[in-house]
Amino acid sequence: MERLKLVFLCALLAVARRGAFVDAVIVDGLQVGFYSRTCPEAENVVRDVVNSEAAMDRSIPPGLIRLFFHDCFITGCDASILLDESPAGDVPEKESSANGFTLIGLNTIDTAKSTLESMCPRQVSCADILAFAARDAAVAAGLPTYDVAAGRRDGVRSNMDDLPGNFPVPGHHVPRLTELFAQRGLSQEDLVALSGAHSIGGAHCFMFANRIYGFSPGTGADVDPSMDPDLAARLRQACPRPTPNDDPERARKGKLDNSYYTELLARRGLLTSDNALVEDPQTRAVVEAFARDDALWQRKFAEAMQKVGALDVILGEGRGQVRTQCRLVNRQGPQQQPQQGPQSQRPQPMFPWLPHHRFPQRRPRRPFPRHPLADMINGFFRGFH
């Protein structure tokens, strides 16, 4: 009997260990055309805003795709990356060193949200707006359109401490990247397909300086020998030896296609994590397949984006909320306040014999109201500039 108990305990531990490896799950329950009744123009509005912003600023499409990925990969697609502050007092995700000043597209989401709030108040979540915007950004950059299922609710927490150790960084190699993606239910093929988004946008010099300066002091190699020498020379010219105050950016082209993979095979990968995809034999085979067939990569990229968009989503009334401003959690109204028993009423003052008006209650901060007209005027001057 004791032996049987031991075998059963070992089996339980094995199952627990295997289950603990997957930190995120792809949730079913989202629907294509979710807003067809409550806000029929929702997707059209987001698409128009993204196209308008992308026409003025070529950094918008890659910025929105990156914003979507960074949001979903950590705590799921809950728009937590958009929050300026957390009700719990935590430092929000966007302040993390993995995000910080490199986040682009936040104002685009704000514009889409304020427009939709004027048309369909409290209907379209910020998490869905971000998912629509990422798809529309990819289309604006040259990808065929694809369906985006909706119905996500917005989260009410954001904490920068969730990122360290749980997010891919430019210095990671394939084993670590594969492990992180597997923990989110994503395959190695998804990893390679999503990396193709690096064909557009830009990279700050500090992200690849380790490959063009002081690569291997022990052997005397200043530049990564796996990098094309001509590319290394151009990068060193664009990005002088780094100093604490310098942070120029190397821009890439604006078309989203499979040229990223042909560049990798030509030894012109920029980041360590890019170059790692051709050095690993398993991922190199996928790189070669995508380099040969642009249509194949486009299909796999769209499928991977759909999988990312379903990571740990919040579904259903009573869970999460639909924010009225994407940067702030909604203030609780009287109907949302938890019921209080007779013992949890307003606390008694410390000095009951003193008049209460001498110690007024501190009022919570009220967010500055936004208006669609103000966003339109701001967009005009931005375009003029």
UniProtKB/TrEMBL annotation:
<keyword id="KW-0732">Signal</keyword>
<keyword id="KW-1015">Disulfide bond</keyword>
<dbReference type="GO" id="GO:0046872">
    <property type="term" value="F:metal ion binding"/>
</dbReference>
<keyword id="KW-0349">Heme</keyword>
<feature type="binding site">
    <location>
        <position position="76"/>
    </location>
    <ligand>
        <name>Ca(2+) 1</name>
    </ligand>
</feature>
<keyword id="KW-0560">Oxidoreductase</keyword>
<feature type="region of interest" description="Disordered">
    <location>
        <begin position="237"/>
        <end position="256"/>
    </location>
</feature>
<protein>
    <recommendedName>
        <fullName>Peroxidase</fullName>
        <ecNumber>1.11.1.7</ecNumber>
    </recommendedName>
</protein>
<dbReference type="GO" id="GO:0020037">
    <property type="term" value="F:heme binding"/>
</dbReference>
<feature type="binding site">
    <location>
        <position position="93"/>
    </location>
    <ligand>
        <name>Ca(2+) 1</name>
    </ligand>
</feature>
<feature type="binding site">
    <location>
        <position position="71"/>
    </location>
    <ligand>
        <name>Ca(2+) 1</name>
    </ligand>
</feature>
<feature type="active site" description="Proton acceptor">
    <location>
        <position position="70"/>
    </location>
</feature>
<feature type="site" description="Transition state stabilizer">
    <location>
        <position position="66"/>
    </location>
</feature>
<keyword id="KW-0479">Metal-binding</keyword>
<feature type="binding site">
    <location>
        <position position="80"/>
    </location>
    <ligand>
        <name>Ca(2+) 1</name>
    </ligand>
</feature>
<feature type="domain" description="Plant heme peroxidase family profile">
    <location>
        <begin position="29"/>
        <end position="330"/>
    </location>
</feature>
<dbReference type="GO" id="GO:0005576">
    <property type="term" value="C:extracellular region"/>
</dbReference>
<dbReference type="GO" id="GO:0042744">
    <property type="term" value="P:hydrogen peroxide catabolic process"/>
</dbReference>
<dbReference type="GO" id="GO:0006979">
    <property type="term" value="P:response to oxidative stress"/>
</dbReference>
<dbReference type="InterPro" id="IPR010255">
    <property type="entry name" value="Haem_peroxidase_sf"/>
</dbReference>
<comment type="similarity">
    <text>Belongs to the peroxidase family. Ascorbate peroxidase subfamily.</text>
</comment>
<dbReference type="Pfam" id="PF00141">
    <property type="entry name" value="peroxidase"/>
</dbReference>
<dbReference type="GO" id="GO:0140825">
    <property type="term" value="F:lactoperoxidase activity"/>
</dbReference>
<feature type="compositionally biased region" description="Low complexity">
    <location>
        <begin position="331"/>
        <end position="348"/>
    </location>
</feature>
<feature type="region of interest" description="Disordered">
    <location>
        <begin position="331"/>
        <end position="372"/>
    </location>
</feature>
<feature type="disulfide bond">
    <location>
        <begin position="39"/>
        <end position="120"/>
    </location>
</feature>
<feature type="binding site">
    <location>
        <position position="78"/>
    </location>
    <ligand>
        <name>Ca(2+) 1</name>
    </ligand>
</feature>
<dbReference type="InterPro" id="IPR033905">
    <property type="entry name" value="Secretory_peroxidase"/>
</dbReference>
<feature type="signal peptide">
    <location>
        <begin position="1"/>
        <end position="24"/>
    </location>
</feature>
<keyword id="KW-0408">Iron</keyword>
<keyword id="KW-0575">Peroxidase</keyword>
<feature type="binding site">
    <location>
        <position position="257"/>
    </location>
    <ligand>
        <name>Ca(2+) 2</name>
    </ligand>
</feature>
<feature type="compositionally biased region" description="Basic residues">
    <location>
        <begin position="355"/>
        <end position="369"/>
    </location>
</feature>
<keyword id="KW-0376">Hydrogen peroxide</keyword>
<feature type="compositionally biased region" description="Basic and acidic residues">
    <location>
        <begin position="247"/>
        <end position="256"/>
    </location>
</feature>
<feature type="disulfide bond">
    <location>
        <begin position="126"/>
        <end position="326"/>
    </location>
</feature>
<keyword id="KW-0106">Calcium</keyword>
<feature type="binding site" description="axial binding residue">
    <location>
        <position position="198"/>
    </location>
    <ligand>
        <name>heme b</name>
    </ligand>
</feature>
<comment type="function">
    <text>Removal of H(2)O(2), oxidation of toxic reductants, biosynthesis and degradation of lignin, suberization, auxin catabolism, response to environmental stresses such as wounding, pathogen attack and oxidative stress.</text>
</comment>
<keyword id="KW-0964">Secreted</keyword>
<dbReference type="InterPro" id="IPR019793">
    <property type="entry name" value="Peroxidases_heam-ligand_BS"/>
</dbReference>
<feature type="disulfide bond">
    <location>
        <begin position="72"/>
        <end position="77"/>
    </location>
</feature>
